[in-house]
Design a protein that fits this description.
252 residues; 2 domains; elongated
C-alpha cells in the first residue's frame, strides 16, 4: 500500500489497517465504511470463505477491492501442486520462533565459559568440560535449536560455581575427550596463537590431571557424559538433544 500511494505523490492518502478480521460482520462494517469514505479495500485474508465474503459485499456496495494474498496463493498452488493450509497467524508463529532463537543465542553468549554462574539455574542445558572440548560451539549450535545453554569450564585450580551443583543432574552434560586427541587440539591451538607447544596447556601430564578432575566433578553431579573425541559438533548436539528429550519425558 505504501509503495502504491507513493506513486500518487500529489495527493495525501490515509492508510487504515484493520487487523484480526475473522467474521462476516466485521467484513460488512469495513466495506460500509469504505463506501462512506470512497476508499479502496486491500486485503490479505487467508480464509477462502472470508475472501469470497469480501468480494460479495464489495459488489453489493460498489466498493473497489484488491485481493493481495488470494492470487499469490493460487499461483503457488498451481505451480507446485501443493495445497495452502489456509490457516491465519502462521507468519506470527514464525516470528515467535525467530525471536525465541535470538533470545537463546543471546543467552548462550551471556553465559558462555562460566562468565555468570547466575545463569546456570535458568538454563535448559548446562555443558561442562575441560578447555577445548567444544563447549562454546555446542552451546551456539543448540541455541539455534531454541535451547538456552550455559557452559562451565572445569579447571583444577578454580572450583566450579556452587550454582552448578544446584542444577538438576538431568540438565547437565559432561564432555570428555581422549587425552591424546586433546593434546593434538591444544598443540595446534598454541601454534595458531604463536606460543610454544611445550606449554603446560598441552602437556600430557597436565591434561590427564584435568581429565581426572573433570570426571570427579561429573561423578559428583551424576550428569550425562558424552565422549566427543571423534564426533562432529552436529553429532554431539544430536546426542544431547536426544538425552534432553528422554529426560524431559521421564520428568514429566
Amino acid at each position: 500500500m505504501k509503495a502504491t500511494v507513493s506513486q500518487f505523490g500529489q495527493e495525501k492518502f490515509d492508510i487504515i489497517r484493520v487487523p484480526y478480521v475473522k467474521n462476516a460482520e466485521q467484513v460488512e462494517k469495513i466495506v460500509q465504511e469504505a463506501k462512506e469514505h470512497n476508499a479502496v479495500v486491500c486485503y490479505t485474508i487467508v480464509s477462502p470463505e472470508l475472501r469470497q465474503t469480501i468480494a460479495q459485499k464489495a459488489m453489493e456496495h460498489d466498493v473497489e477491492v484488491v485481493d493481495i494474498l488470494g492470487p499469490m496463493l493460487k499461483s503457488i498452488e498451481k505451480t507446485t501442486g501443493l495445497l495452502p493450509k489456509n490457516q491465519p497467524g502462521l507468519i506470527h508463529a514464525l516470528d515467535h520462533e525467530y525471536f525465541k532463537r535470538v533470545a537463546a543465542v543471546e543467552f548462550a553468549i551471556k553465559y558462555d565459559d562460566g562468565k555468570n554462574p547466575w545463569g546456570l539455574l535458568k538454563a535448559d542445558i548446562v555443558i561442562i568440560g575441560v578447555s577445548r572440548t567444544s563447549k562454546t560451539p555446542l552451546s551456539m549450535y543448540l541455541a539455534n535449536k531454541q535451547l538456552k545453554v550455559a557452559n562451565v569450564p572445569l579447571v583444577p585450580e578454580i572450583p566450579p560455581p556452587e550454582e552448578l551443583f544446584k542444577v538438576p543432574p538431568h540438565k547437565v552434560i559432561g564432555l570428555l575427550i581422549d587425552p591424546f586427541k586433546l593434546n593434538e587440539i591444544r598443540t595446534e591451538r598454541l601454534k595458531t596463537m604463536g606460543l610454544s607447544d611445550g606449554a603446560s596447556y598441552a602437556d600430557m601430564k597436565r591434561i590427564n590431571e584435568e581429565m581426572e578432575y573433570a570426571k570427579a566433578i561429573m561423578r559428583r553431579i551424576h550428569c550425562t557424559i558424552i565422549n566427543v573425541s571423534n564426533r562432529a559438533i552436529e553429532e554431539t548436539a544430536g546426542m544431547i538433544l536426544e538425552c534432553t528429550q528422554k529426560n524431559l519425558d521421564t520428568n514429566i
